[in-house]
Amino acid sequence: MTWYAALGAVEQGLVYGIMVIGVYLTFRILDFPDLTVDGSLPLGAAVSAVAISSGVNPYLSLLLALGGGFCAGMVTAFLNTKFKILHLLASILTMIALYSINIRIMDGPNVALLGSDTVFDAVTRLGVPSHFAGLVVFGLFAALVVGGMVWFMGTEIGQAVLATGDNPQMITSQGVNIHVVIIFGVGLSNGLVALSGALIAQNQGAADVGMGLGTIVAGLASVIIGETVFGCQTMARAFIAALLGSIVYRLAIALALGLELGGFRFNPSDLNLITALLVIVALITPNLKRRLLAR
Fold first, then answer.
1. Rounded (10°) CA dihedral 149, 152, 153, 155
2. Does residue 265 carry a pLDDT above 90?
3. 17-to-64, 145, 195, 245, 279 alpha-carbon distances in Å
4. Cβ contacts of 88 within 8 Å, gap of 6 or more
5. Sign of the four-CA dihedral 230, 236, 242, 244
6. First and final CA of the chain: distance in angstroms?
7. CB–CB of 9/256 below 8 Å?
8. What is the pTM of this model?
9. Buried b (16+ CB within 10 A) or exposed e, 97-106
């Protein structure tokens, strides 16, 4: 693996790490399996790209993307809590609807940002080399998201989110409306995913309706790898582990794609196979460690 490939993998790990934190919020904290992320990531990219093309400030476009993702997550949670649709089915329905909505927003399958200002231009104007601008911007946003989530989980609302996922009967007996908490939590999760998509679109210079394909698989893989390698004993450690798990996942993929054994090489089309193998290894490692310690 070359230095350039490693740098690119770390950049991707940081920006997709924001998405992974959103996935961690629903799957681990709220215990809400949510497939909406495959649609909310391109939604954030579409909203940000169209806004920038219309002359909106690139930083403001990130807020618009976050708001769009929040609304998408709220729709999924509303279908589940108010209409009693199974969470997996509700998220699939929203994801399918978002495919058409994203095309409607972009007025086509994709939109380019050639010649438009992005959040990276402000960094390069400060003297940061262009090949390091992505690393700086993604690192700052990832740090802000991790810090913000750790702070949020210590608030009263954050504690309600934790309690709702851990023991909904108990928190209901305390007078908390768990439906409101779930709607807010799933909305926040998809807002973070959409923010990640907006940053990716600005970095790539385009938004595409198919860029969210496989997002949930990559997110779950990163969460599992992070928990296995770095642990999740505290909230701060859990969110940091999710972010680092995303970086390890991207580095592992870059390493696998550049690996050659006896003439055999992985192709980009083998990405899903590599992901499946990484998840399998991450899942069986804790059991192997327990068995070895028991012996």
1. 170
2. no
3. 20, 10, 11, 8, 16
4. 33, 35
5. negative
6. 37
7. no
8. 0.95
9. ebbebbeebb
Strand pairing report for 110-112 and 260-261: unpaired
Residue (of 91, 235, 215) closest to 166 by Cα position: 235
Tokens matching residue 84: 């009693």
The whole-number pLDDT of residue 167 equals 93
- Percentage of the chain with pLDDT > 70? 99
How long a stretch of residues is the chain?
295
Q: Which of 156, 139, 155 is nearest to 247 (CA)?
A: 139
Q: How many domains is the chain partitioned into structurally? A: 1
At position 235, the amino acid (one-letter code) is: M
Which tokens is 58 given?
Answer: 């690139």
Which residues make beta-bridge pairs with 265? 260
Amino acid type, 173: S
Q: What is the mean pLDDT of residues 152-159?
A: 95
Q: Which two tokens stand for residue 216?
A: 């949930």
**Would you tell me how many other CB atoms lie within 10 Å of the CB of residue 234?**
12
H-type alpha helices, the chain? 3-24, 37-53, 58-82, 87-106, 119-125, 130-153, 156-166, 168-173, 178-204, 215-230, 235-257, 271-294
Question: CA–CA separation, 70 vs 194, rounded Å?
Answer: 8
- Residues 54, 181 contacting (CB under 8 angstroms): no
Domain range for 158 is 3-294
For residue 97, give both structure tokens. Answer: 């609807």
Q: What is the CATH number of the domain that holds 140?
A: 1.10.3470
